[in-house]
Design brief:
mainly beta, 9 strands, L,D-transpeptidase catalytic domain-like, 119 residues, globular, single chain, two-stranded antiparallel ribbon
Length: 119
């Protein structure tokens, strides 16, 4: 099962420069996407999640660990990151994010990096 996250404009939190990102954490409650190098936070972004992401019968962004398997430029103005979802997971979710921040983040992320989605 594959999941495509289309990242749309929102605000970015300023953080110091990162060297090599080893994992990410998406926190639903805080609406934060945090990039780590080992256990050290190297970037943190404010994100927006779709309306009512946990509504019954609407499988959006299930919790679990995903893996970044592609970076796709849909156009000169749009970029998406494709994730491999946990086995048997169905999701329709997307994450909204500032375009400049998304391009910055995409440059920092190696293919195969793990993304933990937590409550």
């Amino acid at each position: 099962m594959r999941l495509t996250l289309l990242l749309l404009p929102v605000l970015m939190a300023a953080q110091p420069a990162a060297a090599h990102v080893t994992r990410l954490r998406l926190d639903h409650g805080e609406e934060k996407l945090t990039l780590f190098q080992g256990e050290t936070v190297v970037r943190e972004y404010d994100v927006r999640l779709g309306h009512n992401p946990d509504a019954p019968g609407t499988p959006r962004r299930p919790r679990g660990t995903y893996v970044l398997d592609a970076k796709e430029a849909a156009s000169p103005h749009a970029l998406s990151l494709r994730l491999t979802a946990p086995a048997g997971t169905l999701t329709l979710g997307c994450i909204g994010m500032n375009g400049e921040a998304l391009r910055e983040m995409a440059d920092l992320l190696p293919l195969g990096v793990a993304i933990d989605v937590v409550a």
